[in-house]
Amino acid sequence: MNAVVGTSRPRTDIEARVRGVTRYPQDLNMPGQLYGAVVWSAYPHAIVRRIDTSEASALPGVERVITYKDVPVNRYGINTPDQPVLVAEGDRVRWVGDRIAIVVARDLHTARRARDLVRVDYEPLPVVSDTREAMRPGAPLIHADKPGNILYHIPIRKGNLQEGLAQADVIVEGEISTPFVEHAYMQPEAGIGYIDEEGRVTVIAAAQWPHDDLHQIARMLNLPEDQVREVVPAVGGAFGGREDMYIQHLLALCAYVLRRPVKMVFEREESITHTGKRHPFRFRYTVGARRDGTLTAARLELVADAGAYASSTVPVLSNAATFAAGPYRIPHAAVDAYAVFTNNAVTMAMRGFGATQPPVMYETYMDRLAEALHMDPVEIRMKNLLGDGDIALTGNAMWGGVGAKETLRQAALAAGWREESGHWFKPDVGQPSAPYKKRGIGVACAYKNVGYSLGFDDKSGADVTLTLGADGSIARAVVKCGAVDVGQGIVTALTQIAADVLGIDPWRVELVPVDTSRVPDAGSSSASRHVYMSGNAVYQACQAALAKRDEVLRAETGETEVSASYVYHGRSRRPTTPFDPETGQCNPHISYSYGTEIALVEVDTETGETEILKMWAAHDAGKAINPAMYFGQVAGGIHMGVGFGQTEEYLQIDGRPRTRRFSEYQIPTVLDMPKELVSVIVEVQDPTGPFGAKGLGETPTLSTAPAILNAIHDATGVWLPRIPATSEEVWRALQGQGARPS
Amino acid sequence: MQTLSMHVNGSPITLEVEPDASLADVLREQLGLTGTKIACGEGECGACTVLLDGVAVTSCITPAMKAAGRHVQTIEGLGDQREMDVIQQSFADAFASQCGYCTPGFIMATKALLAENPHPTREEIMQGVSGNLCRCTGYYQIVDAIALAAKRLSKEERG
């Protein structure tokens, strides 16, 4: 039996996908099903005075209009349950994604028609749509218990900032900001709520963490958890956007109230304008270095727009704070990170989870430092990058195989950098294709945690059952694990891990489809964690099953089936700790993955249009379980990074959506991607990971935007104060006009 | 309601449809052919691509009545019980699908592209599917899959 881990096995479910027979939630129907449509808030901030459902209820075909009166416990939200399921009369709407009612009708058309007939009297309140405004004294409060609209503030203090700045020969400082970003998974929100054959309130929906949805739904309906169930069919992308409930609770409520199957499907416009987004950040940065490039101090201020409710904002901000200064050794630092409520879209998890925005700041300022010091951008990074045991911003010694330098070295060498006696020399970027075009090359490094952080008990469970032949050989292995394949391919990766541990062909391994009534909680498909966390759980469960098999053989019991379960706790080998409330010092993360990307661009100086000619990427996943799927994560991550850096921005005016459709929200097409992508696999193993694996899902998105910005600067000499670096934004900078107001 | 007669994946079909129904809705809701996906509903992303008399159309904005008397091919019409179509097989072999929601649309767009241009360059492939959006793959493995399919099909042609 050859090793299975480390080989490019096809996805286990690929034939169904290419044949078009894979079923996503909108593809499923049940006999006698009704259709639900949500009545969304018409205001970003208002008091709901009265909800009149009489006209909607009277429309032929309407079965029921569900309001707050039907919700047993009208609160939900991952991490912080601060969102009303349906807003009550006398209560407030805080953004346009708040829900007033659900109209349930015999067909979808009628449900959508009837929702326009629900009459709601609003008393509009002043709208807060900017974090600077929100923090001003006297600003209207979005939540009465949050003075200054500040949801959360994290201070980190390391060393002595003033001393560190005094040691610096060069100091650069400035501001930069990042936009609201839409997940834009291709499969819009959809699902069915029904009562199953055992009387359980059951939801079929695309989810990232079905067992957390289960807890939330049980709380909302005031039911024991064994009377609730969530089934996850194929998921058409997630990227963090399905980590909190967006339709699951509404479907559960419909089934609970009507005791009949109710299907809901959001249109793209509903998906874009009424679901969560990536946090926009404003950064203020001061960073100093000695003449030789050694960093001495950094002062950072981060302000994130939390939108109207907390959702995952606290952990996202926490992550951003720990990664604020990049993967570098900085002896003296002060960080203040704030999350601020506004009446904008709720912001939540999105690929990178707070580690995606800071590189836009710290990597462009690293290039400013290099320029001020007349140093090569690779060389200054190489001097300062973290290594094993180095002390991070939060005072912890880095653990788990720190691959940061190796990713930079590999990417730089691939892109043509030369290293000579400790110095690095940039390659010649070649001649531009026209006299009015300029070429430049830019590098950016970044890192990101694997698993849940800051003392959280991250865990994943797996059950394994082996069917044995007479000689004890394994005929079949059935693995139960609640890890959702959102497209990243975790089912295939876990199959490969199980096959390797058991020493059998992968086709003998079967992963049971995710259904909370059948598989153990594995945590969320997020934090780049499943290969590490669920991989460890499957690894250990398989080993335990093998031990039982051996016992059965020794005792000659004649048993043909053995089972074993394992719950892997991250803290069993990597205990993390929460922030110290005053200094922010802690040991924040279980494990890390690292990456470097280099962009070669050509800028049209007449139009600002920036073409990415080539990109080099080196990412440290510890171990690439499946190299072809590793490439898929890198390329897909870069796609999201190109959008973040150049094209994507979700726009709102005074809390009202201006971006409503794919024609207005531009995710990169095949023509917008780097013309060529060179991916170098870096494997600096984490001894606590399965086969040394860490995680990869998010890191590839982190470096793309700053690499592009640095390349644009290298080509043209301009720095942009914000992303996305659209053609217009680059053109304005080239004209010396500065950015448009933001 | 209006009466619509068309061929779907080679079989003649007559059914009653709403006059304003889209082809995608009729395929999905009335014929159960859910391999055709709806992602944007405005003809912007290509997930709903089907072939109408061999030409790729975005079925979410194509009125169903436009298919009257014509041949519609969907993802379910490719390959047979035993084997996948060459394009489907190539998408599988080249790891061109992650979440898979855009995959049927890409495969149908490829079918039309290769029918028109059996030996496309990489640039022509990219132009040919630039109307299809994917949020997972970054497109490289999709372009690889299409190049692989073109190569395999031209081999088949030469026998």
Polypeptide structure, described:
- The complex is a heterodimer of chains A (about 750) and B (about 160).
- With about 750 residues, chain A is of the alpha+beta class.
- Chain A folds into 3 domains: about 25-125 and about 185-275, Aldehyde oxidase/xanthine dehydrogenase, a/b hammerhead (Aldehyde Oxidoreductase, domain 3), CATH 3.90.1170.50; about 275-455 and about 580-735, Aldehyde Oxidoreductase, domain 4, CATH 3.30.365.10; about 455-570, Aldehyde oxidase/xanthine dehydrogenase, molybdopterin binding domain (Aldehyde Oxidoreductase, domain 4, 2-Layer Sandwich).
- In chain A, the strands form 8 sheets. Chain A has a 7-stranded mixed β-sheet with strand order 3-5-1-13-10-11-12, sandwiched between helices. Chain A has a 5-stranded mixed β-sheet with strand order 7-17-16-15-8, sandwiched between helices.
- The radius of gyration of chain A is 26 Å and the shape is globular.
- Chain A starts with 13 loop residues before the first helix and ends in an 8-residue tail after the last helix.
- Chain B has a 5-stranded mixed β-sheet with strand order 2-1-5-3-4, with helices on one face.
- In chain B, α2 (about 85-95) crosses α5 (about 140-160).
- Chains A and B meet through α1 and α15 of A and α2, α3 and α5 of B.
